[in-house]
Structure formats: C-alpha cells, structure tokens
Design brief:
GO terms for molecular function: hydrolase activity, acting on carbon-nitrogen (but not peptide) bonds, in linear amides; peptidase activity. The protein is of the alpha+beta class. The protein has a single domain (6-309), classed as (Glycosyl)asparaginase (Glutamine Phosphoribosylpyrophosphate, subunit 1, domain 1, 4-Layer Sandwich), CATH 3.60.20. Helix content is 33%, strand content 23%. Helix 3 (107-117) links the parallel strand 3 (95-101) and strand 4 (122-124). It is globular and about 45 Å long.
C-alpha cells in the first residue's frame, strides 16, 4: 500500500498578531510559503523522494529575504552572517548538517552534500567552508545577504552584550528559522531545517537547528520533525527526538506526541516556539505555543493550506 504523500513547511514561530502586519507584507509571506510548499509537493507528486522535496522547499525560503535563513539571515555581533542547516532521511537515518558557515547561498544544499559525500554528519566553521569549496560551491559576497531591515535590527543592539531571537522581535518584522518535512509514496520520511541564528550573536553560538535530534530529525518508524523557536530551550528538551520517542516508546500518535512536547514539556522550562511533523502514513501536525507560526501543508487528500496566525 502506497503512503499518502504529504509535505509541511514553516518559516518561524513567534509574536505574530493579526493586524500588526501590513496586508502587503502578509501577502508576500503567504506567496513565498505557497511557492515553497507547492514546489516541494510537485516533487512528491512526480514520485520524487521526500529528501528532494524538503530540500527544494527550504531552498525557496532561503532564497527569500523575508525569512531568517540564507539570503535573509541576521547579522552577528561582528556584522557577518553565520548560518546553520540540517537535513535527514528516515529510512537509513542518514543526516548532514553544517554550522557557522558564511557566503553559502543555500546552506541546506551544503548540508545535503555533507550527507551524501562525507563520512560525517556535522561540519562547522572553516572546515565546512573548505568542504564546500572542495565540492564546487560558489561563495556569495556579503552584499547578497545584506537586508536593510536586518541591518537596522542589528544596529539597535550592536556593541552591547544583548542578542535577539528573531522570532520575538517587533510584531511587524521578519521571523526565524525555516523548515520542511515530507512523506513520499514509499513512506520514506525526511526533514530539513535552516537558519541565520540570532541577531548580534557572539562567541560562535550554535542553536538547535544543526543538531540532529534537537531541531531536526527523521525516522521512518516514527516521524520527521523540523523545529523553530528559542534554540537553547529546544536543546534542553531535545525536542525533535522527544517527539519520536513518545511515539516509539509510549505509542502516542503524531498529534498526541507533538502536542505533549509543545504544550506541556517546553512550557515547563519556559520554552516557546513550534514544530512541524509528519508520520509515515502522511499525517501532519503543526503545533506552536506562540501567537503565530508561518506554516503550510499539502497532502494528496488536502488542498494547499498556508497560515500565519493562531486563528488561521
């Protein structure tokens, strides 16, 4: 029996209140989310793999300045852009991740290359950059990643020891991490996540995104998960793997497991954010404990759905 093909995406969770964003900006977000969703779904529809689908969906969001990933990445304390990404497939538990990279247009593509062309899972900093050069990646100049709003955001706190979680900034602004999860016709799962991290981050800070089992995880026996939120809290709770464990060891279904983590376990340690998840039957869950989360989903049995606010 073939599985129901399904894909879900997110563009970050946070303080997203209806009426606090211009109609033009809201429409811009919805347009890119729809493009990413439908591009990934088209791959699944043509019998492509879930790994290809999630990579493609994330690439489209990385190419948009609206999200804190790829082109829209925030500024570090030194005025640079340090990006993280991870990708994983659920059949063999193969994964690839990169952290603290600069100049790479699509970090998720480099993460996929780590998965396929190295014996490692996570590469960081200069080593990851050397690996990218070895495999023919083009490096973009800093101007490619420059965004006026991001620069203003950084200017407000640069020179201080403050840092800013992008998804908790002004309600009218751009929000964080992007990700995708998918189930293909063979029931194979995959997850991909990419981020520009925190504004004004220092000391080589790394969040949950590139850590397998924390911000990104896939296992055909349970689910595929991509997280967005306050990275340090997601690391404490090992969120993505926790969802999988609740399904494997407590026999919870996808909805029960994701809600347990987002609405009970994370709040206990004052963590905020959300996640998207899919199981091998094509079921999707997208819980979040913030006012909103840029998100979307499409399956072989449902129409394209794109939403931002809690009430959507």
């Amino acid at each position: 029996m073939k599985s129901r093909i399904s894909i879900a995406i997110h563009g970050g969770a946070g303080t997203l209140l209806k009426g606090e964003m211009t109609k033009e900006k809201e429409q811009a977000y919805r347009t890119v989310l729809r493009q990413a969703l439908e591009s990934g779904y088209e791959i699944l529809e043509k019998k492509g793999s879930s790994l290809d689908a999630v990579e493609q969906a994330v690439v489209i969001m990385e190419d948009s300045p609206l999200f804190n990933a790829g082109k829209g990445s925030v500024f570090t304390a030194s005025g640079k852009h340090e990006m993280d990404a991870a990708i994983m497939e659920g059949k063999n538990l193969n994964a690839g991740a990169v952290s603290l990279i600069t100049g790479i247009k699509n970090p998720i593509v480099l993460a996929r290359t780590v998965l396929e062309k190295s014996d490692h899972i996570l590469l960081a900093g200069q080593g990851a950059m050397d690996f990218a050069r070895l495999h023919g990646f083009d490096f973009k100049k800093p101007e490619y990643f420059y965004d006026e709003y991001r620069h203003e955001q950084w200017n407000k706190i640069k020179g201080t020891e403050n840092f800013q979680l992008d998804h908790t900034s002004s309600k009218d602004d751009k929000f964080g991490t992007v990700g995708a999860v998918a189930c293909d016709r063979n029931g194979n799962l995959a997850a991909a996540t990419s981020t520009g991290g925190m504004t004004n981050k220092n000391w080589g800070r790394i969040g949950d995104t590139p850590i397998i089992g924390v911000g990104n995880y896939a296992n055909n026996n349970t689910c595929a998960v991509s997280c967005t939120g306050s990275g340090e809290f997601f690391m404490k709770a090992v969120v993505a793997y926790d969802v999988s464990c609740l399904m494997e060891y407590k026999n919870l279904n996808l909805k029960e497991a994701t809600r347990e983590v987002i609405f009970k376990r994370l709040p206990k340690i004052k963590g905020d954010g959300g996640l998207i998840a899919v199981d091998s039957r094509g079921n999707i869950s997208m819980p979040f404990n913030t006012e909103g989360m840029y998100r979307g989903m499409k399956t072989s049995k449902t129409e394209t759905m794109v939403a931002i606010y809690t009430e959507d």
